[in-house]
Amino acid sequence: MNKIALPLAFAAAIAAPAVAQAKPVTLTTQLSSYGGPPAYLSLYVTDSSGAYKGTLWMAGGRSQYYRHLRNWSRATGGALNEINGITGASVGSGRTLTVTFDLADALFDAGYQLHIDAAAENVGDSPSDVVVDLTTQGAGQATQGRYYVRAFTYSM
What we know:
By secondary structure, the chain is mostly beta strands. It is built from 2 helices and 8 strands; from the N terminus they run αβββαβββββ.
């Protein structure tokens, strides 16, 4: 289980001036058995207008491949400071990535979306493989990805 301060910091920054309430949220990304090398994943949040708000997690340690996470790269300009301290290993075919964060309540039921971009060497890129609205009602509901992601869920 990973507790990350950055997601809470950006979530609190966009919340109302009052003290932001936060809760632990677990993100579970199960990859399909696509039969290639481990995938790089970026998990990031956009607001109701589609504007990038912050990166929650980056799976994959070699920065030269981050450009293949096209929507994330476009939104951030490939800025490595966006992922400082929030990276982990790439995720193998058929494997599951589970990370837990303290996220501000203000992110839920307010039009924010969580995106997952995915790519693997010699297999291809899948920008916005998953896009899910962050709602309290959506917690625990599985969302199927377009290619790499077999199922994504978040729980509170």
